[in-house]
Write a structure and sequence with these properties.
Distance between the termini: 53 Å
Radius of gyration: 28 Å
Strand content: 15-25%
CATH class of the largest domain: Alpha Beta
CATH topology of the largest domain: BirA Bifunctional Protein, domain 2
Bound molecules: histidyl-adenosine monophosphate
Number of domains: 2
Helix content: 25-40%
Structural class: alpha+beta
Largest sheet: 8 strands, mixed
Shape: elongated
Strand order of the largest sheet: 1-5-6-11-10-9-7-8
Low-confidence stretches: none
CATH superfamily of the largest domain: Bira Bifunctional Protein, Domain 2
Length: about 425
């Protein structure tokens, strides 16, 4: 026997017992996105490495140390997508979909980042990514945030907190960056090793540091919001007013800078109080400069992505995940001689009642073993196909989680009898 092959660290299997929760999350999400006019797009898992370098930024953690990059057999450098925004923008450009047109798009799928795995942080993780392309906002920013708030309500998730900020224009950000770098240099003895490394390439990320020893320094740093240009300030004030108008609560976090370089103006994150680390469940912002930077016509855009594992975990913890799907019926086959009839009867019932979930006992087994399997399946009702009853044109029926005994019904009345029995057991809606 060979040694078992280990899974890749940080890459998880989603087992059947968790699928109901995932599907519930996905269907609620599809419904809300559809109701707001968003259309699904599917883009490749692999893109040219250059795309992510240009879009996300060379100095970000994602590009600098987290990408799964390799040379393919044709000699091209390719990367497993660490996020979906760059790929969607590339698709809009490649398919000539810009030219003054607007698009509201979403995409579901796995993303890949070589981070240190821990609860809520994986190397393969799923995102629902949502992008609104073609509007400068802030109305579209507000609607996107309202959409996410509605999704939490529909999912029954409570305790999610919204933080927003404005990063201004690239020019105001550059000016702020210079002031921040001066401040940090003046206090360089207080910088930890990580921050020293970031000081030249990406000083804004220092504000995101979770190191307790750095908090005093960060608290005293100049604030980005105090250096916004007039247009960005107006955009941000309007966004705040629109959020108030639709009753979405938020707090302004002037230190929210995000880990990807393409943002300008609005940035936001939904944070859960249920975990202390990896607590961002949904985050995004505006990226008006990205499309021209990737070679497309200048087009404003805004979007966000949700971390599916993190949200599904919250659903399960809140008891909001639906129970796993169980069969309605388990068909017990009494003896090899009736296997063929049992298969025929079951297939016929499937024709007549396509909505029923029917599990046919496969692979034989004695009566007791079959009933054990029937119990384990979670079905409320068993059908029993047996030689003597068949000879009389009858089939047996037995509720599995009640003491009431076995009955039988004529084979040609089976669909109606099953409906009645399942209704009586509360396992079928009218
Ligand atoms: P992001 O903040 O890098 O943004 O990721 C979005 C969400 O994905 C996070 O809030 C988190 O819930 C989840 N996430 C990120 N990394 C991991 C991980 N290693 N394990 C589990 N979950 C994770 C983006 O990706 C942007 N593309 C969002 C966006 C779209 N901005 C504009 N449009």
């Amino acid at each position: 026997m060979g040694e078992p092959i280990q899974p890749v660290r940080g890459m998880n299997d989603v087992l059947p017992e968790h699928i109901a929760a995932w599907q519930h999350f996905e269907s609620c999400t599809r419904e809300v996105l559809g109701a707001y006019g968003y259309e699904e797009i599917r883009v490749p898992l692999l893109e040219r490495t250059e795309l992510f370098k240009r879009a996300i930024g060379e100095h970000t953690d994602v590009v600098g140390k987290e990408m799964y990059t390799f040379i393919d057999r044709g000699g091209d450098s390719l990367t497993l997508r660490p996020e979906a925004t760059a790929g969607i923008v590339r698709a809009l450009i490649s398919n000539s979909m810009l030219r003054g047109q607007r698009h509201k798009l979403w995409c579901l799928g796995p993303m890949f980042r070589h981070e240190a795995p821990q609860a809520g942080r994986y190397r393969q993780f799923w995102q629902v990514d949502v992008e609104a392309v073609g509007c400068p906002g802030p109305d579209v920013d507000a609607e996107l945030i309202a959409l996410s708030a509605r999704l939490w309500r529909n999912l029954g998730l409570q305790g999610l907190r919204l933080e927003i900020n404005s990063l201004g224009t690239p020019e105001s950000r550059r000016a702020y960056r210079a002031r921040l770098t001066d401040y940090l240099r003046a206090h360089s003895t207080q910088l930890d090793a990580d921050s020293e490394r970031r000081l030249e390439g990406n000083p804004l990320r220092i504000l995101d540091s979770k190191n307790p020893a750095m908090q005093e320094l960060i608290a005293g740093a100049p604030l980005l919001t105090e250096h916004l240009d007039a247009e960005s300030r107006k955009h941000f004030e309007e966004l705040c007013a629109l959020l108030h108008a639709v009753g979405v609560e938020f707090s302004i976090n002037p230190r929210l800078v995000r880990g990807l370089d393409y943002y300008n103006r609005t940035v936001f994150e939904w944070i859960t109080a249920a975990t202390s680390a990896q607590n961002a469940v949904c985050s995004g912002g505006r990226y008006d400069g990205l499309i021209p930077q990737l070679g497309g016509d200048a087009t404003p855009a805004v979007g966000f992505a949700m971390g599916v594992e993190r949200l599904v975990t919250l659903l399960v913890r809140a008891g909001r995940a639906p129970a796993p799907v169980r069969p309605h019926l388990y068909v017990v086959v009494n003896g090899a001689a009736v296997t063929e009839r049992a298969l025929q009867i079951t297939e016929h019932l499937r024709d007549q009642r396509p909505g029923l979930r029917i599990e046919l006992n496969l692979g034989g087994g004695n009566f007791k073993a079959q009933f054990r399997r029937a119990d384990k399946s979670g079905a409320p009702l068993a059908l029993i196909v047996a030689g003597d009853e068949l000879a009389r044109g009858m089939i047996g029926m037995k509720p599995l989680r009640q003491t009431s005994g076995q009955s039988e019904c004529p084979l040609d009345e089976l669909p109606t009898a099953v409906d009645q029995a399942l209704r009586a057991l509360g396992a079928l809606e009218d």
